[in-house]
Amino acid sequence: MNIESLRDFVLSFPNVEETTPFGPDTLVYKVNGKMFFLMGLDNDPLQFNVKCDPDEAVELREIYPQSVLPGYHMNKKHWNTVVVDRVLSSKQLQDFIKKSYQLVSKKK
Prior knowledge:
The protein is built from three helices and six strands; from the N terminus they run αββββαββα. It is of the alpha+beta class.
């Protein structure tokens, strides 16, 4: 996946808002006014942050130590940074994003 395909996928969810509160180089996606996906435009390799269940966050970091890291500049208990490095499939990347959206969208 690339920046464009990730952006298209994220924007396919209902009620998603694209913002740039941290400057023009970081896209932030919110639902119900809360962040669920962040992506820097200048990262090489491409990476993004997603919200995650705390237990699952740790488990994913253990399974994919090179591709799933504690959330960069985020609460490390609830956020993971995912590196788009071809270790993880597009489906896995999409699943991480979908779960993040679901976690945040059910909170009001």
